[in-house]
Design a protein that fits this description.
This protein is about 35% helix and about 20% strand. The protein is of the alpha/beta class. Among the domains are: about 225-315, Alpha-Beta Complex (Flavocytochrome C3, Chain A, domain 1), CATH 3.90.700; about 390-525, Up-down Bundle (Methane Monooxygenase Hydroxylase, Chain G, domain 1). Strands 1, 2, 7, 8, 9, 10 and 17 form a seven-stranded mixed sheet that branches. It has a five-stranded mixed sheet with strand order 18-16-11-19-20, covered by helices on one side. A hairpin with a 5-residue loop joins strand 9 and strand 10. Helix 2 packs across helix 3.
Length: about 550
């Protein structure tokens, strides 16, 4: 039994765990792989903080709100931007080697920002943040459940009671009781192809909360990265593309503003301006800068046999981030007692309809710090739930039933069908007809999923069974995305509908909440908080 259980060992999960522990809570961190192998290590776009001459948290917040189409809650954005300076100070004290110009931070202007406020560690910002936070986890003595998969979060009455986990090495199920559970499982990147996903990006936490009845928010906003290396999942970092000249394969220029909304690139490809679904980047920076980005150079060389200094890279847009997630308040709490969410699985309403490069790491770190401390405070004086093995027994019985299925549909094929439909109909460009087709595909795959089995009956390291669980979670996320996208009958930020190509001020003042009701998604609205800045009426 623990005060706080954190599900997910990436940057947000480790930050939440460390700060929950700092408040005196007993903490367990559950991760399906070693934290240094989490998706977080691939994040390259830096960390925004208003630390430069003439810059301010207010200017940062205003830029964030404008970029997000005024759909971000402004008090939340204000707090994130104000908290940036002491988060950076803490990371610096822990040993994060941000680039410096003498004693000062060497700030980089990232795409979409008018000011240089991005702190980077060359092109390995996510990697070094992950390493340093992992050191803090080990230093704190936090209980680490490595190579454990959470199958579900459980409740007693109206409050969370713990999680059911599967030990990959033994194949045994276990119930871990907790007064508070923090979901930090990342986004559902594997729901789309092409995408920048790793194998672990299946949106598990979003599905757990959704099935427990917690609302999801802003699920329609699916952000594509405009420059992902052809035939790979490698996103060319915004740190590099900020200094690059962007052109299509036929030589036509692409502005930074167009690149921020990849539908412009999709339109260019559809209009014959692209080649094989790709555009080309022409780099104008010097060779000294390319030599700094050793990580990207090595990956580009290994994946494509190219070098940054060669001047051109074939790239394509690919799904990169979900801007919504589990609806939470300013302390990361969901509508279910003791259940919290942080990072990319949380709908913290920071990004609105478009997320600025550099704001994702910032939002994860600031909100995870606050959430970890809030979860620890929540547990104070609360009794532990009685320990029980019945949840683990139920999970074992479910697995046995799945093992008994013979000749069912192939899970991998079902996921590919789902991912292709989501990219085609609920990706860069949407309309009512396409969203309806996506919904039909989701229903068809969900029906087939009910009869699907796994080919291996092994208990230890049965990745076929793991992929089966992930598909169920992806189906829940897909259902919520399509329902929310169908309800937003306007175009705003990364949500572009050809049948409603302009922004609607009335809809732009509302978040969409999706709740699972009697097995179906129910969409409601919640007003966006606009405390200081208002969208233009022109």
């Amino acid at each position: 039994m623990f005060d706080v259980v954190v599900v997910g060992g990436g940057i947000a999960g480790m930050q939440a765990a460390v700060h929950a522990h700092s408040k005196g809570a007993s903490v367990a961190l559950i991760t399906r792989t070693n934290p240094t192998s989490s998706y977080s290590i691939t994040i390259q776009d830096g960390l925004n903080a208003a630390l430069g001459p003439g810059d301010s948290p207010e200017a940062h917040a205003k830029e964030t709100i404008h970029a997000g189409g005024f759909l971000a809650d402004q008090a939340v954005v204000d707090s994130v931007c104000k908290d940036a300076s002491w988060v950076v100070e803490e990371l610096d004290r822990w040993g994060v080697p941000f680039n410096r110009d003498g004693a000062a931070y060497d700030l980089t202007r990232l795409p979409g920002s008018a000011t240089a406020r991005g702190l980077i560690a060359d092109d390995m910002t996510g990697h070094v943040l992950t390493q340093v936070l992992y050191e803090q986890v080990l230093k704190s003595g936090i209980k680490l459940y490595e190579e454990f998969v959470v199958e579900e979060a459980t409740t007693e009455g109206s409050a969370v009671s713990g999680v059911v986990v599967l030990d990959l090495a033994t194949g045994r199920f276990e119930f871990i009781g907790a007064k508070a559970v923090i979901l930090a499982t990342g986004g559902p990147r594997r729901l789309y192809e092409p995408s920048t996903a790793s194998l672990h990006c299946s949106g598990d936490g979003i599905a757990f909360a959704y099935r427990l009845g917690a609302p999801l928010v802003d699920m329609e906003f699916v952000q594509y990265h405009p420059f992902v290396l052809k035939n790979s999942r490698l996103a060319v970092s915004e740190v590099l593309t900020a200094t690059a000249e962007r052109v299509t394969a036929s030589g036509e220029p692409i502005t930074e503003a167009e690149a921020a909304l990849p539908r412009a690139i999709a339109a260019a490809i559809a209009g014959g301006r692209g080649e094989d679904g790709c555009v080309a980047l022409e780099y104008t920076f010097d060779k000294g800068l390319t030599n700094r980005f050793f990580n990207t150079n090595q990956r580009v060389s290994g994946l494509a046999g190219l070098k940054l200094a060669d001047g051109k890279l074939p790239v394509r847009p690919a799904m990169h981030r979900l801007l919504g997630g589990v609806a939470v308040n300013h302390e990361g709490a969901t509508s279910i007692g003791g259940l919290f969410a942080v990072g990319e699985c949380a709908g913290a309403t920071v990004h609105g309809a478009y997320g600025l490069p550099g704001n994702f790491l910032l939002a994860s770190l600031t909100t995870a710090r606050r959430t970890g401390r809030a979860a620890a405070d929540y547990t104070g004086g609360r009794p532990y739930m009685p320990e029980t093995d019945r949840m683990a027994d139920h999970a074992e019985n479910r697995r046995l039933n799945i093992f008994r299925r013979e000749g069912g549909p192939n899970v991998a094929a079902l996921r590919k069908e789902l991912a292709a439909a989501m990219h085609q109909h609920a990706g860069l460009v949407r309309d009512a007809t396409g969203l309806s087709q996506a919904s039909q595909t989701i229903e068809r795959v969900a029906d087939a999923y009910k009869t699907a089995g796994v080919t291996s009956r092994n208990q230890d390291y049965n990745f076929g069974y793991l992929h089966y669980l992930e598909l169920g979670n992806l189906l829940d996320a897909a259902q919520a995305i399509v329902a929310s996208a169908a309800a937003r009958q306007e175009s705003r930020g990364v949500h572009y509908r050809t049948d409603f190509p302009t922004a609607d001020p009335n809809q732009g003042a509302q978040h969409h909440l999706v709740t699972l009701t009697s097995g179906s998604p129910a969409v409601t609205q919640r007003p966006v908080e606009m405390s200081r800045w208002q969208p233009s009426t022109n």
